[in-house]
Amino acid sequence: MNAFAPPSAPSSSRAHAEIDLAALRSNVRALRDRAPGARLMAVVKSDGYGHGAVPCARAAREAGAAWLGTATPEEALALRAAGDTGRLMCWLWTPGGPWQQAVESDVDVSVSGMWALREAVAAARAAGRPARVHLKIDTGLGRNGCTPADWPGLTAAARAAEAEGLVKVTGLWSHFACADEPGHASIAAQLEVFHEALAVAARAGLDPEVRHMANSPATLTVPESHFDLVRTGISMYGISPSPELGTPADFGLRPVMTLTARLALVKRVPAGHGVSYGQHYVTPGETTLGLVPVGYADGIPRHASGTGPVLVGGKWRTVAGRVAMDQFVVDLGGDSAEAGDEAVLFGPGDRGEPTAEDWARAVGTIAYEIVTRIGVRVPRVHVEGGVHG
Ligand SMILES: *Cc1c(COP(=O)(O)O)cnc(C)c1O
User: Fold this and answer.
1) Is 136 designated active site?
2) Res 305 pLDDT > 50
3) Model pTM greater than 0.85?
4) How far is Cα 3 from Cα 342, in angstroms, rounded to an integer?
5) What is the set of domains in the chain, with CATH numbers?
6) What ligand 1 atom has the least distance to the C-alpha of 215?
7) What 8-state DSSP symbol labels residue 95?
8) Ligand 1 in contact with 260 (CB < 6 A)?
9) How confident is the model at residue 78 (pLDDT cuts 50, 70, 90)?
10) Would you say the CB of residue 215 lies under 6 angstroms from ligand 1?
């Protein structure tokens, strides 16, 4: 590809994240094929992992996602405000949260303990309709979820509230700790605890609509974890949950986000020229420097200083010196370039650009964090199929 071609649309932007909704739909279909016996929940928390929750939710629905999932109730209510009317669940509650609004908006809520059940019941009374509740068991993640010790009490209390018409237990669910490490002993152990929890709930008289446990890595590699519903986040955005599991292409997935900036300045400098705060990079010879107008305020990790990869003029360049709040510099090694030229930070990789996974490796994190942290100052441009075809 020719990096000296006119920059891609929107041609006037400092930087933008192109979001390929056709790729997202295709990913949803590929994931549904992986879990043929289950329905799919498209996880669109944290603004759709940085891809834009509303357009991604809409595209996922079009591709057959029966459920949407968010972390916070505010995220779920925002989807309702945007017009979504399908099954929708959120799981990260705190006391005093918008329980009543959730019940009135037909949002399924997660309950991990008695305090939450009490809030759901109070909300149901106020709303004059039952709260749809997914009871969560901690099968070993040690994060949210009811302990196995408290589970008989929680399921019995939920059943009593159900008998009073105040709640409907629509789901029983849990979450994996190490599904991205194939064969990890905790996977089978958590499944066993979940099966026991389901049996306890059945003895309490609960008959949920969906039992669910699988995140992306479990959806891709642990079929016995699929139950009635799989909750896919990162894979839907075309990113492998872990490089050890395989590449996106191995699973028929295609990265959805391409992050591009346009050079703000190109200049020739002599050897020995310090670059950016601290002057941690010094030009080894006479060279050209390209100024990339995005920085840590845009979600470019400051840890990418000296390591982050960028495609400019058909070649991989590395962040020279520190990433600043709004900009960083690449050493173009004497190549000619001009202000306005494209600098592709990451994308699907088929134009030779780095991927979000390459950035994750460069900065010692996971690709989840790379895409999710892209800041609000970077416009998301939703396209079909990508402007680059
Ligand atoms: C974020 C999240 C998911 C999705 O995980 P991925 O690995 O991105 O597929 C599923 N379930 C819960 C509870 C989550 O918090």
Assistant:
1) no
2) yes
3) yes
4) 6
5) 35-236 (3.20.20.10), 257-388 (2.40.37.10)
6) 9
7) T
8) no
9) very high
10) yes
Give per-residue burial for 100-110: e unless 16+ CB within 10 Å, then b: bbbbbbebbbb
- Is a pLDDT exceeding 90 seen at residue 8? no
Binding residues for substrate: 143, 325
Question: Out of 267, 277, 315, 368, which one is annotated catalytic?
Answer: 277
Other CB atoms within a 10 A radius of the CB of residue 253 amount to 27
Pick from 93, 222, 231 the residue to mutate for probing ligand 1's pocket: most ligand atoms within 8 Å of its CB: 231
pLDDT at 191 over 60: yes
Angle at 358 between CA 356 and CA 360, to 5 degrees: 70
State the pLDDT at residue 12. 73
- Predicted pLDDT at 6: 37
User: Would you tell me how many other CB atoms lie within 10 Å of the CB of residue 45?
Assistant: 19
For 204-343, where are the alpha helices, taking DSSP H only?
216-221
Q: What gap in Å lies between CA 131 and CA 379, rounded to an integer?
A: 37
Alpha helices in the chain (DSSP H): 21-34, 45-49, 53-62, 73-81, 99-104, 114-127, 151-163, 185-203, 216-221, 356-363, 367-372
- CA 72 to centroid of ligand 1, rounded, Å: 13
| Ligand 1 atom with the shortest distance to the CA of 217 | 7
Instruction: Please indicate whether residue 316 or residue 386 has the higher confidence score (pLDDT).
Output: 316
Tell the residue number behind the tokens 């991205």, with chain if given: 180
The ligand 1 atom at the shortest distance from the C-alpha of residue 241 is 7
Cβ atoms within 10 Å of 357's Cβ, excluding its own: 20
Closest CA to 305 of 340, 272, 326, 281: 281
The dihedral region occupied by 373, where left means phi > 0, alpha psi between -120 and 50, and beta the remainder, is alpha
110: phi > 0 → left, psi -120 to 50 → alpha, else beta; which? beta
The DSSP letter of residue 94 is: -
3-class secondary structure, 266: strand
Residue 277 among the catalytic residues: yes
Tokens of 280: 């941690």
Q: Ligand 1 test: best mutation among 28, 34, 43, most atoms within 8 Å of CB?
A: 43
